[in-house]
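Regression test case RT-17, inverse folding.

Input:
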């Protein structure tokens, strides 16, 4: 069974990276140029934090995520979106993950705050495991 990879963005503080590395599956950091410029070889899941940068459009999508999604191959194979955020940002909570999900028509699979709790890690592993199984069934693999 193919294990769906997670492509994530994590800044220097590395909170999302710490979470991603506990998922027990292939994970790729879009902060690294090599991964940001790559194209996927099958279904994949995006994990993104939201970053209010104070620009006039209130844009919270990390530039590396935007760059990766410029590839039509990557956009087509995206199956779902997960987000890390902080409720202190109010109406902007999880804005990046939610905007990408809305724009792409893919579901938000999971959301957590900051680096997540052990429960968040377990729950996320379960959701992704179910997704692996569903995709294997859908593609006869
Ligand atoms: C400058 C800054 C802006 C942020 N803006 C938002 C935001 O608009 N919405 C949100 O839900 N979280 C926001 N957060 C919280 C981060 O998304 C969250 O802490 C995330 O886990 C950071 O991941 P990273 O350390 O891997 O980059 C912000 C954090 C920082 C430092």
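Golden output:
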């Amino acid at each position: 069974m193919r294990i769906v990879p997670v492509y994530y963005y994590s800044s220097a503080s590395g909170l999302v990276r710490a979470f991603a590395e506990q998922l027990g599956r292939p994970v790729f950091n879009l902060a690294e140029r090599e991964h940001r410029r790559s194209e996927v070889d099958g279904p994949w899941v995006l994990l993104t934090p939201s970053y209010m940068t104070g620009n006039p459009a209130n844009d919270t999508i990390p530039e590396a995520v935007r760059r990766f999604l410029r590839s039509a191959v990557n956009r087509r194979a995206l199956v779902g979106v997960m987000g890390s955020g902080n409720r202190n940002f109010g109406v902007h909570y999880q804005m990046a993950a939610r905007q990408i999900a809305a724009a792409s028509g893919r579901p938000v699979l999971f959301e957590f705050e900051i680096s997540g709790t052990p429960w968040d890690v377990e729950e996320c592993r379960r959701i992704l495991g179910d997704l692996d199984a569903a995709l294997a069934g859908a593609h006869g693999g």
